[in-house]
Amino acid sequence: MSTGRFWAVSFVASAAFLVLTRLLPTNEYYFFAGYQVLQFIVLATAWNILGGYTGYTNFGVGAFFALGAYTSVVLTKLTSVPIPVMILIGGAVPAIVGLGMGYLTLRLKGVFFAIATLALAIVAQTLIVNWDYVGGSRGIYIIRPALAPLHGSYIEYLYSLMLMLAWLSVAIARTIERSQLGLGFAAIRDDEQAAEAAGVPTLKLKLIATTLSGALMGMAGAPLPYYVTYLDPASSFSLSYAVNSVAMPLIGGTTIWIGPVVGAVLLGTIQQVATVTISSALNLLIVGLLLIAFVVIAPNGIVGLVQELRRRARLA
Mean pLDDT, the chain, as a whole number? Predict the structure, then answer.
């Protein structure tokens, strides 16, 4: 399927699914849970653009996600703008941070780059904790409207926005994968020194990856204050965002656009079921156990395992 046709078909499918979920009577909690799963699709896809396509592991997901959320807090206190505008601005700020982080850290490789991104998250959290304007360590309450701009509850409205954002992030990832940019990313992942020797502008491509990845993570975090209505550094910089964003692409598959989607839907759904039936405290335990299992059974993720089984079936 061509890229243009994929964009059109996937957009129509997303819009149809959105209309269907809005028309069918359902418990509002399903929109809460669906929002979480869609949010992880965006985060996992954003992480995979840098970590999967170029091979640079990013542990600073919490920093970009929280920057998007606190950008919305600042906008709420300064002026009154619609949530879609907050999402765009909430993506622009982390994109700039991602570009700056790239200039400072992308000459590092492997574990050194991963540690640098983790340090970024710690620095960002320290700054937010000591910034009283956005609530500091005590947090801040956000009063959202009772009704959405169009119709229905505000949670349904946020769910609709996150659904469209998930579609956009997946469409961007697929477009990158099938473009010259994706080939450059794959060359960096396979052998960066050989790519440089072949004339690939590795630093430029890595900066594009960090900027785009940071923008999508920030856009995923921008609606968070209106989703939870109370935002504090402990929740916005939660370890679960970083862990899930890394685990979901690894479980689904990192070398193809559908991998993070599969991992996010599988892992996110299991976590929501565990939260309702047992306890949310089990979420990270579930992630750890599934990650260990898939590293042993399917090191290339679910999509990689399916592709390998199909290849063996053709050979047989």
Answer: 86
Residues 6 or more apart from 118 whose CB is under 8 A from it?
59, 60
Question: Cα separation of 164 and 16, whole Å?
Answer: 11
- Rounded Cα–Cα distance for residues 207 and 50 (Å): 10
Q: What is the pLDDT of residue 171?
A: 92
pLDDT bin (cut points 50, 70, 90) of residue 66 is: very high
Exposure letters 91-126 (e unless 16+ CB within 10 A, then b): bbbbbebbbebbeebbeeeeeebbebbbebbeebbe
Q: Regarding predicted confidence, which is higher, 296 or 170?
A: 170
Percent of the chain with pLDDT over 90: 38
Cα separation, 230 vs 98, in Å, equals: 26
The first and second tokens of residue 113, run together, are 């780059």
DSSP E strand boundaries for 217-296: 230-231
- Predicted confidence (pLDDT) at residue 69 exceeds the cutoff of 90: yes
Cα–Cα distance measured from residue 106 to residue 284, given in angstroms and rounded to the nearest whole number: 29
Chain segment 147-176, per-residue pLDDT in tens: 777 666 788 889 889 999 999 999 999 999
Q: CA 100, 101, 106, 111: dihedral to nearest 10 degrees? A: 180
- Number of residues in the chain: 316
User: Which of 107, 37, 97, 104 shows the shortest CA–CA distance to 65?
Assistant: 97
Question: Rounded distance, CA 216 to CA 29, Å?
Answer: 25
Rounded CA separation 157/164 (Å): 11
- Phi and psi (nearest 5°) for 230? -140, 120
CA proximity to 160, closest of 26, 21, 11, 8: 21
Q: Report how far residue 279's alpha carbon sits from residue 282's, in angstroms, rounded to the nearest whole number.
A: 6
What distance in Å separates the CA atoms of residue 245 and residue 249, rounded to the nearest whole number? Answer: 7
